[in-house]
Design goal:
The protein is 62% helix and 2% strand. It has a two-stranded antiparallel ribbon. It is built from six helices and two strands. It has 195 residues and is mainly α. Among the domains are: 78 residues, Four Helix Bundle (Hemerythrin (Met), subunit A), CATH 1.20.120.1200; 39 residues. Helix 1 packs antiparallel against helix 2 and helix 2 runs antiparallel to helix 3. The radius of gyration is 25 Å and the shape is extended.
Length: 195
């Protein structure tokens, strides 16, 4: 059963990744990204990494994709853009780098290429002991030793969102951009003329 789930959600993750790369509409790309992230979360569950699965869904599929959609809607990049390339050799360089990464993955898989040791197999530590499970250990460190950095990061993100909304409201329609009617007066947003 685990093998069937693995191949099903691995296929969904690959399909979602291809959808992100191949879709022309940025909103559709973000939705394909949600499919990929949720599929990866299920793969974490198969490996008994419940904390990583929860973080994957809550932080990435939830908050980060919502932030992407917020920026897409705020900047209006969902409109069609020109396909002219300003950098002439961008595509060949990207293709060469992609083939290089693919060759590294295929040729060095299972070897000691990252840390000098073979990859560890098995389930993360689940025992009780003095520290409890992995989730309890991470929670204890996050909410004791790293509480202030965690809270300051949250405040910084809130300030960034409020600032971007304020800048977007301020850079809206300016009076000099309003059309001039036949009397030489600028039209107000409600349609009245102002001399």
């Amino acid at each position: 059963m685990t093998v069937v789930l693995f191949f099903a959600f691995a296929g969904l993750a690959l399909a979602g990744a291809l959808g992100v790369v191949l879709s022309r509409n940025p909103v559709h790309c973000a939705l394909w990204l949600v499919l990929t992230l949720v599929s990866v979360a299920v793969l974490f569950l198969i490996q008994d990494a419940q904390l990583l699965a929860a973080v994957q869904v809550i932080v990435y599929a939830g908050a980060i994709v919502v932030l992407f959609l917020f920026v897409i809607m705020l900047l209006g990049v969902d409109r069609r853009e020109t396909l002219t390339e300003h950098l002439r050799f961008q595509r060949p360089i990207a293709l060469a780098l992609g083939l290089l990464v693919l060759a590294e993955i295929l040729l060095l898989a299972g070897h000691t290429w990252a840390t000098g040791a073979k990859t560890a197999s098995g389930v993360p530590i689940q025992g009780g002991g003095d520290f409890g499970t992995n989730i309890q250990r991470v929670a204890r460190v996050l909410f004791t030793d790293f509480l202030w950095p965690f809270q300051l990061t949250a405040v910084l993100l809130v300030i960034a969102v409020v600032g971007s909304v304020a800048l977007a409201k301020r850079s809206g329609e300016r009076p000099e951009e309003r059309p001039i009617d036949s009397r030489g007066a600028r039209a107000t947003p409600e349609g009245e003329s102002v001399p």
